[in-house]
Amino acid sequence: MKRSLLALASMLLLCLGTTNAQNNTTAQTVNTDATYAKDLLQPGTIAPNFSLKTYDNRTIRLSDFRGKYLVIDFWASWCPDCRKDIPAMKELYSKYSTQGVNFLGISFDTDKERWAKTYWGTYQMAWTQVSELKKWKKGSVIDQLYKVNWIPLMYLIDPNGKIILGITEVTKLKETLESINTASVLDNNSPKAQFKGGQRAFDDYTIEHLKGVFCDKKANVKADLVVRFTVMFDGQVTGAHVVKVKNVEASGSQYNKMTQAKRQAFIAKRLAEYKKEAVRFMTTKTKIAPDVQLKHLWKKPWKEVGMPLWEPATVNGKPIQTNQTVTLNFGCL
């Protein structure tokens, strides 16, 4: 009987201990978030302006994004939690960049090549990336302006330049984006940027640079890719990402000999290549890291690729930033 009572008492103590441990864990999670987010710029505060450089030395200013919602993502390639959040950020970018939201990554990397290879070569982060190339909390200015005491850290800024949210958890950023009508700032009748020379010149340029890139008549996959991109105030084309793939057709003697499973795998692989090439094509020329899966396209470690400057749209004689789409054709035409 005593043994039974002792066993019962031990089980009760164990359960109480487990409950307390769970409560402590929850408390620690809440306190951790409160610790890192409590000193951030408060909602309603005007976001401090700044001027930072991209990898290819373009100047990006906060004021460039006035009139649009903006997500600022503070991160670094050496930060494990930042890398963990990248897939979620890519999902948000894919969904909301078509709804009037701009994204800007601000990195605390100090190694320029490692920074570029991480955001472009490894993770294919299509939104604009800038950096001071200075150590976080040791020489950086932007971390002081935005009170960055922890990364990853995100701010959501409204079209008037005011802080909506400052947070360390990407899930809370997602919840906030879902709760506001970001698409209300889009105007389908607003002026659009154009390729220099107009649509005919763009069509000629596309045929010249994309025709035959993935043409294999023995196993040909034709597809139309709808690409969303941003034309900056200076004509730079950035932020390209594929929003839709349509009119997929496959043919050829080798393709016809494949099993159904191999056909599906072949088409999926080729479409993945098309998507990566479409992003490269619709990005203003810059040096980028080679992609391992497409290494057969590269003749040297770094290659100049991409789109010439466009003529930006203007309002009252002043250039503006615009989000646009274009359809690219791949495969043997």
From TrEMBL:
User: Which CDD domains does the UniProt entry name for this protein?
Assistant: TlpA_like_family (cd02966)
Keyword Disulfide bond in the entry? The reply is yes
Compartment list: Cell envelope
* Chief localisation class: other
Q: Keywords of this protein's UniProt record, alphabetized?
A: Cytochrome c-type biogenesis, Disulfide bond, Redox-active center, Signal
The record's section on InterPro entries has: AhpC/TSA (IPR000866), Thioredoxin-like_sf (IPR036249), Thioredoxin_domain (IPR013766), Thioredoxin_ResA/DsbE_sf (IPR050553)
Query: Where's the Thioredoxin domain?
Result: 41-191
The record's section on Pfam families has: AhpC-TSA (PF00578)
Provide one Gene Ontology biological process annotation. Answer: cytochrome complex assembly
Question: Is the keyword Signal assigned to this protein?
Answer: yes
A single Gene Ontology MF term assigned here is: antioxidant activity
- What is the protein name given in its UniProt record? Peroxiredoxin
Organism name: Prevotella bivia DSM 20514
Taxonomy of the source species: Bacteria, Pseudomonadati, Bacteroidota, Bacteroidia, Bacteroidales
